[in-house]
Each structure stands twice: as C-alpha cells, then as structure tokens.
Amino acid sequence: MARTWRIGLGALLIGAAGQVAAQEVPSAIGRISYGNTFRSGSAICTGVLVTPDLVLTARHCLARSQARPGMVQFAAGYSAGRSVVTGRGAEVILSTADVTASMANDVALLRLASPVPMDLVAPLPLASPDAGPPSAPFNLFAYRRDTPEQAERQDDCALLTTAPGVLALSCRVVSGNSGAPVLAKDGEAWQIHAVMVASSRGGQVHSLAALVPPDLRARIEESF
C-alpha cells in the first residue's frame, strides 16, 4: 500500500529528483508564508494567482488560518528577497464538494485583501475540466522549505495513473511544494491542471495532485 504525506506544514522532507532547472518562473506563482516576519526554516507553501484577488493552493496550507486569514502572506514571483507584489489574505475559501478521497478535497483559495493589478501579474488560467492529459509531462514550479528563496522547476512530472479527483505523478516533492500548480502548456501559455498536495511512496508514484473541485472552479470563474 502506498504511503502519503502532506508536504506543506512540517511534513517529511524527501530528496528532490527529476530535472530541476533555474528557469524563469511565471510571476503568478508565489510563496505563501505565515505571520509578519519570515524566518529561515519556517513553514511555507506555494500558491498561484488565478484571478486578481484569488490564490489557488492546497487546503492544508490554509485550514489553520481560516480564522485569521490576515496572517497569511502571498508573495507573487518571489525570488531572493523580492517579489513582484505581496498581498495579505482576507478570506480562506474551502471546498465543500462531496469527494470520495480526502486528497481530492485538499484544495483551497485565499482571497487577498487587495486585488493585484493585472499589468503587474497576469493570473494563470485553469485548464478545461474536459481537457485530457498533455502529451508531454507536466511541469511544477514550487518553493522548498529548505531553500525558500527561489522557486524551482521540475519538467518531468509524468502522469502515471488517476483516481477520482487525483493525479498520481512521477515527480518527487518536498516540504514547501504543497499548493504548487501542476502545469502544462496550451500553445505558448501555461494552464493549471491540478494542485500538488502530497508526497507518496508507492512504487513509481512519488506525488499526488488534486484537481480543482467544481465549487472552487465556479468561484474562480465568477471572479472575472
């Protein structure tokens, strides 16, 4: 039986694998941190701006902050101490979808206190729910808790199998990668297919990503 771990807050660190390249990260992808001051080694997650005021991430990255969303900070395009823009949370939005697997419900939205101007950061779109898997492996841009100053890229996240609401992938993930968008290109533009939620030790399966539930997808579409 495969064993899984949440990878956002204080979870097991496992060694990164796959091709990781220091290439340009879409500015809509950013680091999620907690409190007024970030300290080295503190818990982090990854998130992605999907509308000017909504950040998509993993549910377990935000569930503890539901009563105090203002303690959550999203730094879009964060790199080496600088971000394109930084925003504070105003509301944590959890899915109420009826799903068969807990991993499939591990998706949430953070509504920012102030919208991000689209001329500064262009939100990334969701892939159509009817879209099939891409012909090439998925890409993952994500921050790591042990090296939180720069997002890293993995471009070899092969889809191995699926379960209701969940993709089982080949790329290895570490603490801090939770909430990262699982991306594929439609032409020249990135689209979000799922959200990274857990590491796994199940043969060739090294990570699990959750599809965006219908209620959160509707909330995103309503915000435009």
UniProtKB/TrEMBL annotation:
Keyword Hydrolase assigned: yes
All copies of domain Peptidase S1, residue ranges: 13-224
GO molecular function, a single term: serine-type endopeptidase activity
Keyword vocabulary terms for this entry: Hydrolase, Protease, Signal
Pfam families in the cross-refs: Trypsin_2 (PF13365)
Entry keyword Acyltransferase: no
Signal peptide: 1-22
TM stretches of this protein: none
Biological process per Gene Ontology, one example term: proteolysis
InterPro entries: Glutamyl_endopeptidase, Peptidase_S1_PA, Peptidase_S1_PA_chymotrypsin, Peptidase_S1A, Trypsin_dom
Record's protein name: Trypsin-like serine protease
Organism the protein comes from: Pseudorhodobacter turbinis
